[in-house]
Amino acid sequence: MSLTVQQSASQLNNNRAKQEAESRDRFNFFDLELLKVLASSQHGNLLLSPASVKASLAMILEGAAGNSAKQVREALRLPDDERDIRQHFNNFLNSLQADSPPNVVEAANQIFLSHTITPQLQYQNILKKYYYAEIERVDFSSPGYAAQSINRWVNMLTHGQIPFLVDPGSISRNTKLMLASAMYFKGKWKNAFDLDKTTQNCFYVEVDQCFNANFMDTVKTYNYAYIGNLHAQAVELPYEGNQFSLLLLVPTKRNAVHQLIRDLSHASLHHIVSSLEATDILISLPRFSIDYSTDLIHTLNELGIHEVFSTNANLTGMVQWINYDLHVSNFLHKAKIEINEYGTVAAAATGNFSTNSFCTITNT
């Protein structure tokens, strides 16, 4: 009887672990698709924070209905149950909070709302409870002032890594609200690189084109695997406290990064991580700093999200006054990362403006 009970518990744990892995892969699918679509139209360095983008989309979803909501939910591969969606993102935001002093992880959301409108009470309460989003009133009729308020919040949350996200030109007299998401990470390597061993070497950007870069070299034991279906090597670099790590994927063939990105959309990050094994290896990692900015509307269109960006958008769950027909007019994203011998500093911010499609004023 004891054996039977243990088997049942084991099977239950295995099923639960399998469901959690499938849920993570489904949640990560959007990340890889977003990367693939962006990479197909971009040249040079590419950097983004899917977590920040998804948080921003989830807040749009909470105020959307009908086909507008359906397109966002399907692109993110989210379940139909709203309670499951909210709890999923709440758990995700909570998981980002570091409890080890060497690392700093911060994530926050904010609603910048025009003085002239009132939010739906349910929308306001849901965003505060599950997404930790607070309301800050701004005067969008004064674009300079509004941009200054938004950028001040972004600069504070990213510890100066992203000093501004919006410029006054991206704000119009019809802008009614902006949903913003910002994230910041600062982590120290569990095994720091020796500064004296950093040397200049050739970093290839094309098959026959390279430039000199500072490479950080070390020989240590890291979790490593060769991923055959990706034709790539994977290695995990942990930060102090072992709560966070950097997963590096390197194609075995030079100039095969774009093929690797395309193949990633058919891969499981859970499978990659579970394939890693402790191995003594030589790592040669370039020291670098990258920043990137873009408007993601076209990219999100390619992922199936159209209606919220059009005058047919159904965002009736956001504000109370029926004469405001809102649609998302901008979906701005900025990210920055710096990797050196001591660790990593990374930050990202996403902001989407909801603009009045048309306003009907009736004299009485």
From TrEMBL:
<feature type="domain" description="Serpin">
    <location>
        <begin position="32"/>
        <end position="364"/>
    </location>
</feature>
<feature type="region of interest" description="Disordered">
    <location>
        <begin position="1"/>
        <end position="20"/>
    </location>
</feature>
<dbReference type="InterPro" id="IPR042178">
    <property type="entry name" value="Serpin_sf_1"/>
</dbReference>
<dbReference type="InterPro" id="IPR036186">
    <property type="entry name" value="Serpin_sf"/>
</dbReference>
<keyword id="KW-0722">Serine protease inhibitor</keyword>
<dbReference type="GO" id="GO:0005615">
    <property type="term" value="C:extracellular space"/>
</dbReference>
<feature type="compositionally biased region" description="Polar residues">
    <location>
        <begin position="1"/>
        <end position="16"/>
    </location>
</feature>
<protein>
    <recommendedName>
        <fullName>Serpin domain-containing protein</fullName>
    </recommendedName>
</protein>
<dbReference type="Pfam" id="PF00079">
    <property type="entry name" value="Serpin"/>
</dbReference>
<comment type="similarity">
    <text>Belongs to the serpin family.</text>
</comment>
<dbReference type="InterPro" id="IPR042185">
    <property type="entry name" value="Serpin_sf_2"/>
</dbReference>
<dbReference type="InterPro" id="IPR000215">
    <property type="entry name" value="Serpin_fam"/>
</dbReference>
<dbReference type="GO" id="GO:0004867">
    <property type="term" value="F:serine-type endopeptidase inhibitor activity"/>
</dbReference>
<dbReference type="InterPro" id="IPR023796">
    <property type="entry name" value="Serpin_dom"/>
</dbReference>
<keyword id="KW-0646">Protease inhibitor</keyword>
